[in-house]
Structure formats: structure tokens, C-alpha cells
């Protein structure tokens, strides 16, 4: 491979804009809220990512999660190479798909102990290619299973870009300041009931009015697409209770949290009593993505066998995919999950604690009003003095401080998410050298955040 720079980032961006809307294949990559020129990446290794101009950055996006082990982990790359050697896509079942399904099932279950019966929320799994497909299928399945139409979601929660889920969907929409998307019919939007997050009274009130028509509640296991906003203690458990009392399903979206915050995702942390006082509840369906594909396009939907068996070919709810369970993606997913052991999670927990603390200290040293948003090892920062608990609160922060902070870090060789409404991601490959580069960049960046003004 040639190392010569052919074009600059700016030239690649100009060229891309002629053939690709906005020059990007996913909106947040366009640097809309931070301004400036997106970096066009050519390679990534461990904690680093390298752009077309040959500049290397410490990467705190980690492909929005999948690079849990660091980029291009040698054993994952070997597994992918071996799979490629056997064939790219068969359009038929493969033995490895079942192995991946079994790995996920084994993780997302809690063994029985004296106090709690065995809980196995994943009995069956269907593989798809994107998180969007996983949640979209979950909703169709919930509607097919319950015979009801309405869906409850929370403001600021992102579940992918299927029509019914784009109401107040945080993340990319928050970055662009859009309430939802054009092109979604009024009839579709009317079937999505949007509630404030962490507000059980609002959920009770909605069910009192519409309960018999609500097919499901969908919720991010811990919200991380409006910055990180953890659920209040007992919130998810209470959602499960309300849904089940009303004959509705609870769809837990672990596309981002799954296999990142712990071996069994956020549900696993709650089920084990590690966080959020969440003992003793079980979602009906769980959506996975990001890490489950190890960096290749693979996502999955799992849950109760009686619900999952409503899917074709067993049941009347149709779902299919030419590349579903693609053998190369499955190989990456299996290799990643096999390597993601307790040591990896404790390393990531440790890094998250260290970095969130150091960033907070840097802001404090410059008098930047901020709060640290954390959910397990996911973290982000809100430019406000209190920790926001919902989307309305998140939006009141001084988000203009992020742009100069982001660019100062980027200039110093640290690639942060290009929006204040995104979580930061670390990998187990972020070693002392990478961490020290981040720490060295913080004082100047915090100073830039301190001197930012709303006007620009
Ligand atoms: C990323 C994400 C999705 C969508 O997954 P895609 O693979 O981008 O379609 C859904 N839900 C959550 C919580 C996510 O973070």
C-alpha cells in the first residue's frame, strides 16, 4: 500500500460532496456541529486512527463502539482473513451463525442463586446487518405478537433510522437540531408516543390512557445518544413491570451498551445488581449491534422464544436479509466476543474512570461549568452544572463550548466524537502512551472551551 498522500482531507471532502450527499455516508461524520473539515481515514490500529494526510490520532470514537479491543486486533483480523478465504457470502446457513447465537445466549443470562431464579432473556436470536434493522424488526415483532399498534419511546433515545423511531431521536438529529425527519408520514409518527426519559409518572399516565393499544416500550438500556444519561435506579425494572401489567412488551436497545459496559451488557449489570438497583426484571426483546459484529456490519435481535418464534419461517411476522449472518461478519463477531473477557472490561472501566476524571479536572481548572455523564464505562460531558436526566435538560447546556474544545483536541492528535451529544469510547488497547497524549492535550482544550462564546 502506498503511503504517499494523494489529496488533502479538504480535497477529499470537496470531491466526496460531488458524489455523496454532504460528502458522508452517515450525517455526524460531516462535522456539522463542530465545523471544519472531516478527516478522511485510511487505516486504524490499536488506539490510533490515521487520516489521508498521514496524521495519526488517538481515537475516542472507536467506530462508535465496535473497536472494544482496539482497532485491527490481530486475532480478529486473523479470524476475518480465514473466513474470507472460505468465501464471502453464501446466501445459506453456516455453522458459525449458531456459534455466535450461542455465545450471545451464554452471556446474556444470569445463573440461579439463592435469591434469584435463573434468568435467560435471550432464548432465540435472529441476525441482521444493522442496529436499525434489529430495532425495526423488534417493533414489527411486538406488533405482530400483541396485535397492537402503538409504540412508546423516550425523547433523546436513538434506535436507528427506521420511520417510526425518528421522533425526537437524539444524536444525529440533536446535532442538526431537527425534531425528527422529513419523509416520515403523519400516520407513522402518530403511532410513536414520545415521553420524557426517567419519568415514570409520564409512563404510567400514558399507559392509563392508551395501555390496551400499546404494543411495546422501546428504551436504550442506558441512554447514550444525547450524551450519556443513565437510567434512574429501578427505572428499567419499572418499565418492564408497567409493560407486562398491560400486556405490552419491553424492547431493550443494547445496540450501543451491549458487550461494551460489561459481558452481558447493561441488562447484565442490572441483573447482577452492579448498577441502578435493577434486580429481577427481564426485557422481552433485546437489540444488539456495534460490538456484536466486531467492526463488520452485523447486528442481532434476541429474546423470548415465544415472541421470537413469531418470525418467519415459523410465524407470520416477516423478516429477511440477503447478507444476514454474513460469514465474514460472524467470524469478526465471534472472535471479538471470545476475546472480550473480564480483563478487557476491567481495563475499559479503569480507563473510563481515569479519563472522565481527568477531563473534569481540566474543565474545573479553567472554571468551565460542566457535569460528568456516566453509565458504567460510557461517559460524556455536559456543559452545565447539574447532571442532566433527560433530553430537555441536556439541551439547556452551553453546547457552543464543545466546538473549540473538540478542535483543540483534534489539533493535538486526539479524535473525539464530533458532537457534544455523543458518548466517548475507549478501547482496551488505549495504553499509557495513548492516554498520555490525551492528558497532554486537555489543558489547552479546556482553556479553549472556557473562552468560547455563544456567538461563535
Ligand atoms: C447505533 C445505534 C443504533 C443503530 O444502529 P445502526 O447499526 O447504526 O443502524 C440503534 N440503537 C442504538 C442505541 C444505537 O446506539
Can you describe this structure?
There is one protein chain. By secondary structure, the chain is of the alpha/beta class. Helix content is 36%, strand content 13%. The chain is built from 15 helices and 13 strands. It is globular, with a radius of gyration of 21 Å. It starts with 8 loop residues before the first helix and ends in a 5-residue tail after the last helix. 50% of the residues are buried. The site of pyridoxal-5'-phosphate has 14 residues, from α4.
As laid out across the biggest beta sheet, the strand order is: 4-10-9-8-7-5-6
* Percent helix: 25-40%
Number of helices: 15
Distance between the termini: 41 Å
Shape: globular
Low-confidence residue ranges? none
Give a brief description.
36% of the residues lie in helices and 13% in strands.
Topology:
Blueprint: H1 9-19, E1 41-45, E2 48-51, E3 56-59, H2 74-86, H3 95-107, E4 124-128, H4 131-146, E5 150-154, H5 171-175, H6 186-189, E6 192-195, H7 200-210, E7 214-220, H8 235-245, E8 249-253, H9 265-271, E9 285-288, E10 299-303, H10 305-308, H11 327-339, H12 342-365, E11 371-375, E12 378-382, H13 391-394, H14 402-411, E13 414-415, H15 432-451
Parallel strand pairs: 3-13, 5-6, 5-7, 7-8, 8-9
Antiparallel strand pairs: 1-2, 2-3, 4-10, 9-10, 11-12
Helix pairs in contact: 2-11, 3-11, 7-8, 12-15, 14-15
Pyridoxal-5'-phosphate is lined by residues 130-132, 135, 158-160, 220, 225, 253, 255-256, 289, 299.
Amino acid at each position: 500500500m502506498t503511503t504517499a498522500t494523494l489529496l488533502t482531507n479538504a480535497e477529499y471532502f470537496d470531491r466526496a460532496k460531488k458524489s455523496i450527499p454532504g460528502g458522508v455516508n452517515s450525517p455526524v461524520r460531516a462535522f456539522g456541529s463542530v465545523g471544519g473539515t472531516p478527516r478522511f481515514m485510511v487505516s486504524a490500529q490499536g488506539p490510533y486512527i490515521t487520516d489521508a494526510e498521514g496524521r495519526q490520532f488517538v481515537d475516542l470514537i472507536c467506530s462508535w463502539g465496535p473497536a472494544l479491543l482496539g482497532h485491527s486486533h490481530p486475532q480478529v483480523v486473523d479470524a476475518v482473513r480465514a473466513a474470507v478465504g472460505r468465501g464471502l457470502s453464501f446466501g445459506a446457513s453456516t455453522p458459525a451463525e449458531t456459534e455466535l447465537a450461542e455465545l450471545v445466549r451464554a452471556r446474556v443470562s444470569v445463573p440461579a442463586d439463592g435469591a434469584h431464579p435463573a434468568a435467560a432473556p435471550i432464548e432465540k436470536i435472529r441476525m441482521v446487518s444493522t442496529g436499525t434493522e434489529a430495532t425495526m424488526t423488534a417493533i414489527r415483532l411486538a406488533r405482530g405478537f400483541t396485535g397492537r399498534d402503538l409504540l412508546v419511546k423516550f425523547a433523546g433515545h436513538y434506535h436507528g433510522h427506521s420511520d417510526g423511531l425518528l421522533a425526537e431521536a437524539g444524536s444525529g438529529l440533536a446535532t442538526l437540531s431537527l425534531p425528527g425527519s422529513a419523509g416520515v408520514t403523519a400516520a407513522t409518527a402518530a403511532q410513536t408516543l414520545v415521553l420524557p426519559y426517567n419519568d415514570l409518572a409520564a409512563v404510567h399516565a400514558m399507559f392509563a390512557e392508551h395501555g390496551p393499544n400499546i404494543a411495546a416500550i422501546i428504551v436504550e438500556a442506558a441512554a447514550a445518544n444525547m450524551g450519556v444519561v443513565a437510567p434512574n435506579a429501578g427505572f428499567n425494572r419499572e418499565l418492564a413491570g408497567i409493560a407486562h401489567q398491560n400486556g405490552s412488551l419491553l424492547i431493550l436497545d443494547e445496540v450501543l451498551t451491549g458487550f461494551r459496559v460489561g459481558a452481558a451488557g447493561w441488562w447484565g449489570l442490572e441483573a447482577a445488581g452492579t448498577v441502578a438497583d435493577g434486580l429481577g426484571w427481564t426485557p422481552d426483546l433485546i437489540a444488539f449491534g456495534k460490538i456484536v459484529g466486531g467492526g463488520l456490519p452485523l447486528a442481532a435481535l434476541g429474546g423470548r422464544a415465544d415472541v421470537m418464534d413469531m418470525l418467519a419461517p415459523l410465524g407470520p411476522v416477516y423478516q429477511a436479509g440477503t447478507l444476514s449472518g454474513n460469514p465474514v461478519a460472524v467470524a469478526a463477531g465471534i472472535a471479538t466476543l471470545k476475546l472480550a473477557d473480564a480483563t478487557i472490561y476491567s481495563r475499559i472501566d479503569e480507563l473510563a474512570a481515569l479519563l472522565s476524571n481527568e477531563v473534569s479536572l481540566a474543565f474545573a481548572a479553567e472554571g468551565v461549568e460542566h457535569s460528568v455523564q456516566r453509565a458504567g464505562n460510557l461517559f460524556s460531558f455536559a456543559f452545565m452544572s447539574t447532571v442532566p436526566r433527560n433530553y430537555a435538560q441536556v439541551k439547556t447546556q452551553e453546547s457552543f463550548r464543545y466546538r473549540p474544545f473538540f478542535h483543540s483536541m483534534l489539533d493535538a492528535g486526539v479524535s473525539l466524537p464530533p458532537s457534544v451529544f455523543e458518548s466517548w469510547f475507549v478501547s482496551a488497547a488505549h495504553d499509557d502512551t495513548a492516554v498520555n497524549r490525551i492528558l497532554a492535550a486537555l489543558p489547552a482544550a479546556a482553556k479553549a472551551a472556557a473562552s468560547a462564546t455563544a456567538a461563535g
